[in-house]
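in:
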C-alpha cells in the first residue's frame, strides 16, 4: 500500500474505535503529537512532586505525612508509566529529560506556583489532581493503546489524591478562623491556575482539531474545563469556600456554572518561564537528576551483568 492508502486505513481504524499499538503503522504527525503530549505529561508528573515534597517534613500529623508521602510516590510512578508509554514511540527517556532541562519541552504551568502553607497541599490535591482526573479519565479513551492503558492505573490513584486534598480543605474549613482564612487563601491562589491546566480555549488551541480527529483527545479543552468547574464549585460551596470569581453565575438552561475571563496573559507568561517557581523547579530537577546518575549507572550495570550471567 502507498502512504495515502495507509492513511485511509489508519483513519478507518481510528474511526472504528480501534487502539493503535506501537508496532502499527501511524502517520508521523500522529506519532509526533503523541510524543509531545505524553512526554510533557510525564515531565509534569515528575516536576509536580516538588511542590508537595516541600511539605513532607512539615505535615501537621503522622497520618497527613504518610498520605502525602504516598501521593508523592504515586506521582513519581505516574511519570515512569508515562515515560515508558512515550518510549514506545521511539525516543529514549534520557532524550526527553534533556529536552525538558533545556527548555525545549514543557510541563504543566500549575507546578510553577509556590506551596506556602498546609492549605496549599489541600488545594493541590483537591483542585490540581481533581482537574487531572477530569482530563485523564478522558485520556483513558485515547486511540493510542499504551497511553490509554497508563491512564487506567493513574486515574485510580488520582481519585485518592483528590479525596485527600478535599479532606484537608474540609477539615480546615471546619477549624478556627485562621485555618478557614488559610483554606480560602489557598482557594484564591489555586482556582484560576487549575482552570488553565486544561489548556487554551478550543478556538486558540493549535493541537485540539488534529488531536480530536485522531481521537488522542475525545473531548475538547473547554468541555473538560466546564466539567471540572461544575463539579468543583459545588464542592467548594459544600464546605463553605468562596470561588474567587465575581462573575461566576449558574445558568439554569445549560446547567453550567459560567465563569469570568481567564487571564491568558498570566498563563502564557508562566508557560514561557516567568512564573514564581519556574527557575527553582528546573534547577532542582537538574541538580537531583545529576545526583541520581549513579543509580541509573548501577541499574544498567546490574542489567548487563544479569544478561552476561544468563548468557553464561
Ligand atoms: N501548562 C503548560 N503548557 C500548556 C498547558 C499547561 N497547563 N496547557 C497547554 N499547554 C501548551 C501545550 O503543551 C501546547 O504547547 P506545545 O505545542 O509546545 O506542546 C500549547 O500550550 C497549546 O495547547 P493545546 O491545548 O493546543 O495543546 P494540547 O492539545 O496538547 O492540550 C493539554 C493541552 C490539555 C495539557 C494536553 O496536552 C493534555 O491533555 N496533556 C496530558 C495531561 C497533562 O499533561 N496534564 C498536566 C498535569 S499532570 C498532573 O496534574 C499530575 C497530577 O497527578 C498532579
Amino acid at each position: 500500500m502507498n502512504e495515502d492508502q495507509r492513511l485511509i486505513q489508519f483513519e478507518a481504524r481510528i474511526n472504528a474505535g480501534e487502539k493503535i499499538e506501537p508496532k502499527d503503522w501511524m502517520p508521523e504527525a500522529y506519532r509526533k503529537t503523541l510524543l509531545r503530549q505524553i512526554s510533557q505529561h510525564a515531565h509534569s508528573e515528575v516536576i509536580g512532586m516538588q511542590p508537595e515534597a516541600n511539605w513532607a517534613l512539615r505535615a501537621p500529623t503522622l497520618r497527613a505525612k504518610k498520605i502525602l508521602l504516598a501521593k508523592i510516590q504515586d506521582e513519581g510512578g505516574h511519570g515512569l508509566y508515562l515515560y515508558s508509554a512515550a518510549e514506545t514511540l521511539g525516543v529514549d527517556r534520557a532524550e526527553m529529560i534533556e529536552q525538558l532541562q533545556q527548555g525545549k519541552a514543557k510541563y504543566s504551568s500549575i507546578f510553577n506556583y509556590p506551596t506556602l502553607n498546609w492549605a496549599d497541599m489541600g488545594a493541590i490535591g483537591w483542585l490540581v489532581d481533581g482537574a487531572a482526573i477530569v482530563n485523564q479519565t478522558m485520556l483513558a479513551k485515547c486511540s493510542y493503546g499504551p497511553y490509554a492503558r497508563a491512564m487506567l492505573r493513574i486515574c485510580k490513584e488520582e481519585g485518592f489524591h483528590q479525596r485527600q486534598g478535599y479532606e484537608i480543605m474540609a477539615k480546615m474549613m471546619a477549624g478556627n478562623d485562621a485555618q478557614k482564612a488559610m483554606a480560602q487563601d489557598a482557594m484564591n491562589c489555586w482556582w484560576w491556575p487549575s482552570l488553565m491546566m486544561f489548556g487554551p480555549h478550543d478556538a486558540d488551541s493549535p493541537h485540539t482539531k488534529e488531536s480530536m480527529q485522531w481521537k488522542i483527545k475525545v473531548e475538547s479543552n473547554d468541555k473538560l474545563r466546564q466539567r471540572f468547574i461544575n463539579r468543583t464549585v459545588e464542592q467548594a460551596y459544600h464546605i463553605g469556600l468562596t470561588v474567587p470569581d465575581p462573575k461566576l453565575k449558574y445558568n439554569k438552561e445549560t446547567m453550567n456554572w459560567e465563569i469570568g475571563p481567564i487571564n491568558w496573559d498570566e498563563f502564557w507568561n508562566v508557560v514561557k518561564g516567568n512564573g514564581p517557581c519556574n527557575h527553582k523547579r528546573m534547577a532542582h530537577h537538574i541538580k537531583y537528576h545529576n545526583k541520581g546518575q549513579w543509580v541509573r549507572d548501577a541499574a544498567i550495570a546490574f542489567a548487563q551483568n544479569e544478561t552476561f550471567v544468563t548468557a553464561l
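note: Residues 36-37, 40-41, 44-45, 48, 75, 78, 106, 108-109, 128-129, 132, 135, 158, 196-200, 205-208, 211, 221, 271 surround 3-hydroxybutanoyl-coenzyme A (CB under 6 Å).
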